[in-house]
Design goal:
Elements: H1 7-12, E1 18-23, H2 32-47, E2 52-55, H3 67-76, E3 80-86, H4 92-104, E4 109-113, H5 134-146, E5 149-152, E6 155-158, E7 165-170, H6 177-193, E8 198-200, H7 206-218, E9 226-231, H8 235-242, H9 253-262, H10 270-287, E10 291-295, H11 301-314, E11 336-338, E12 345-349, H12 360-373, H13 380-390, H14 395-411, H15 429-432, H16 464-473, H17 498-503, H18 508-513
Parallel strand pairs: 1-2, 1-10, 2-3, 3-4, 4-7, 7-8, 8-9, 9-10
Antiparallel strand pairs: 5-6, 11-12
Helix pairs in contact: 5-6, 8-9, 10-11
């Protein structure tokens, strides 16, 4: 068996192509699903072709064997795990605790993601957590790698540095400008927070895979390795993806039709599926990906070895394969102009100068915000003095209730006390996003609509980040959404007045804008 470089070494090396293989452990500790996972892991460890085994974290929002614990077990087999570490089921304290445990257990490779919305659980659907989003979690991991500074009775102390190699997921497979550009705004924040590699979401449009590589370079992070995503796609899974049953994974109507025709073969299309995966491997390696993430239900280790071998045979002529992966979304938006010669992308962004119209509600909120919440506004000083006057007095309770009532009517306020309305065009991520995403959309939406409340469903809901983008773009301010990371909610503020917290310089917006509490003389 050839000696493999570590997962990190292979991703960061120019003379290696990194391979990961996805394991889905399922529910239970000693069931058949777990036996199959460990058998596959043993084969991969012996085969010497796979750099890391990726382990899903409660996929589909269903309970499953802990990815963190399974990572420790996989390590013992002599192959590295790449643990999917999501935000859906854990608050920040449990995240930190698990990270300390994984550091001690020498499980260092992490793929940080938002995670699917919870679907099931013991005695009913579990309560989703989403205390942190991936930007916040990557910031925590970066701080831990540098030696986390923590409070003590005598001040602070710095913990020993951790050794995590943490990456993030990114999706170029979005159909509209607003949902795609906000995805890229969030990707930039992830990279700035310390993401050390990127893994593409799943789709079958070669131009979109190329776009992600172009975008990472366009943002100034060309040194960050990007992994492609190769999934051996049967008809059933394609139909599920087509209706967003696997949130964020895209299989178009045309692709489903191709797979339907292929399924009539004597092997039900398996040979063509495996060949398609090999071709994806080839064009991704050819266009400059640092490696590929391989997955698929029922894919054996022998299938994997065939895909790798066949893929290597095809790499030399990878551009000839591109027409077979021309499955664009209907009226799909691309960030860069098309290269007529290759069918991929140029480095020139498309023209996005056209402005949508804005609603009267948004315009009214702009006027109110300028008057009351900008230091030069007519009402700013009186509002600030009022906040200082009522704080700590019996009137504060009434003041807070009146504020809450106003904001419930206008913004569905949940009284978090650390308002993000200023950041998202006066839309509240805590009440209007089921995953409470403050720094950009999750990857699970489809055609601009929420993963949890999709278009056509009862209570359908357009993604608030899509709405914020369109509102801001109406006056050329959409870049604001990618300008800075919005901190996670500090629960010390919950059920307090966000106005008082803002005017007295406590919340994240006040700190960003340099707002300070008025002095005793009222100045």
């Amino acid at each position: 068996m050839e000696h493999l470089k570590t997962f990190q070494q292979s991703l960061q090396s120019k003379d290696a192509f990194c391979i990961t293989w996805e394991l889905v452990p399922g529910r239970g500790a000693f069931e058949k699903a777990q036996d199959q996972v460990f058998y596959a892991a043993e084969q991969a460890a012996k085969g010497g072709k796979v750099h890391a085994l990726t382990i899903t974290d409660n996929p589909g929002g269903n309970p499953a064997l802990s990815a963190e614990m399974l990572g420790v077990e996989v390590n013992k087999l002599g192959i590295e795990p790449l643990v999917h570490f999501t935000c859906k089921d854990k608050n920040r304290n449990q995240m930190e605790g698990l990270l300390h445990g994984m550091e001690r257990g020498s499980v260092h490779n992490l793929l940080v993601m938002t995670g699917d919305y919870t679907y099931s659980g013991h005695l009913g659907r579990a309560k989703p957590v989403f205390d942190y989003d991936p930007v916040h979690l990557l910031t925590l991991i970066t701080d831990m790698n540098q030696g986390l500074e923590v409070p003590t009775m005598k001040g602070t102390t710095r913990l020993k540095p951790a050794h995590f190699f943490a990456g993030a997921a990114a999706s170029p497979f979005k159909a509209t400008e607003s949902e795609l550009v906000t995805q890229y705004f969030k990707l930039k924040k992830k990279l700035e927070a310390g993401a050390q590699f990127i893994v593409a979401q799943l789709g079958y449009d070669a131009r979109k895979f190329h776009e992600l590589l172009q975008m990472v370079k366009h943002m100034g992070f060309g040194h960050i390795p990007v992994m492609g995503n190769v999934y051996v796609l049967p008809l059933g899974a394609a139909k599920l993806m087509n209706r967003n049953g696997l949130p964020g994974c895209v299989a178009t109507d045309e692709l489903v039709s191709v797979l339907d025709a292929e399924s009539k073969a004597s092997d039900k299309g398996k040979g063509l599926r495996i060949e398609r995966a090999a071709k994806m491997y080839a064009f991704m390696k050819g266009m400059g990906y640092a490696g590929v993430h391989l997955g698929g239900h029922g894919v054996s280790y022998d299938d994997l070895e065939f895909i790798l071998g066949r893929g290597e045979e095809l790499v030399a002529n990878w551009q000839e394969l591109l027409p077979e992966f021309d499955f664009p979304q209907a009226d799909g938006f691309y960030y860069f102009e098309k290269d007529a010669k290759t069918g991929l992308n140029t480095e020139k962004p498309v023209d996005r100068s056209e402005r949508p119209s804005s609603s009267l509600t948004y315009k009214a909120m702009q006027v109110l915000h300028h008057a009351a919440f900008e230091p030069q506004g007519l009402l700013f000083k009186p509002m600030q003095r009022l906040a200082a006057a009522v704080e700590g007095k019996p009137l504060e309770h009434t003041y807070t209730k009146l504020e809450h009532l106003c904001k419930v009517v206008s913004n569905e306020c949940e009284s978090c006390g650390d308002c993000a309305l200023f950041d998202l065009a006066y839309l509240c991520p805590m009440s209007q996003c089921p995953k409470a995403q403050r720094n950009g959309p999750c990857g699970g939406g489809l055609n601009g609509y929420c993963e949890v409340y999709p278009k056509g469903s009862h209570g359908e809901q357009e993604c608030i980040h899509v709405r914020a983008y369109n509102r801001l773009k109406s006056h050329g301010a959409e870049e604001q959404l990618g300008a800075y990371a919005i901190p996670a909610l500090n629960s010390d503020f919950r059920w307090t007045s966000s106005w008082i917290n803002f005017y007295l310089g406590r919340d994240h917006s006040a700190k960003r804008l340099g707002i300070e509490a008025p002095k005793a003389d009222g100045k």
